[in-house]
Amino acid sequence: MEVRHLGNTDFNVIMECFLSAFENYFVKMPTDYHFYHKRWKAAGVRYDLSYGMFDSNKLVGFIINAIGQRQDDLTAYNSGTGIIPEYRGQRIVKSIYNYAIPQLVKNGVTKCQLEVITKNEKAIKSYQGIGFKICKRYKCYKGTLSTDNKKGFVLNKFSYKAVDWDAFPNQDLYSWDNQKESLVQANYECYQVQVEGQLQSYFIMDSQSGYIAQFEVLEDSVSQWQNLFSAIQSINQDVRINNIDNRLTNKIRAVKAAGLESTIDQFEMELYL
């Protein structure tokens, strides 16, 4: 078996291996190839800096890397790691990283980053063995919003081009797919919530699926959270939120008060090169 980059590998071949690797995973994974094509494009995936383990010409394991400048580091974000069932237990992930890290360093990457479900103890130990350390803990939620707030608000759509990201809090606490650098490449809708002519909050979401990528209040108060979730509910009542940093206790409290239930917890792990 040998490790090669995935720049010359057909996307359908990658997806066949991906779905086989994630069959019977902790959460049910989407199976639509187009979903991953859009998601990985928005994330900034570089297939020539992503790597797979090949048995002859059969792809049996992979690490999909998105590459981007985040804060002070050119980062390789692991958008997905998997090994098909019959090849597990052979330390393939470690072998791929042993090959990949020198290649990433040659291309100026200074940090590797990933997310892993906290219950996936085998994967966590594997990543720790490579040198990754836990740096954040995230909580995920989904459900049907049940706010009955009747206070008046005005909901306005706005463009990414009009976003003053410095005015919005907690930008450094979002995970990779929800950071502003990824969102500008995705097809989300941006909304501002105003009350009596004053901006109170904003949210960025896929109105069709109900996935909320970002949401914040400008003043951390119960009334502003209620107005925000009432506004979200007016777009889509059934929503999903990934990766709220567990240090944002008031935000988590507001999410629960709005009727959403916890699904999984994740660790963010990082490795400086």
TrEMBL record:
Xref: PROSITE patterns: GNAT
Domain N-acetyltransferase positions: 1-160
Gene Ontology MF terms in the entry: acyltransferase activity, transferring groups other than amino-acyl groups
Protein name as annotated: GNAT family N-acetyltransferase
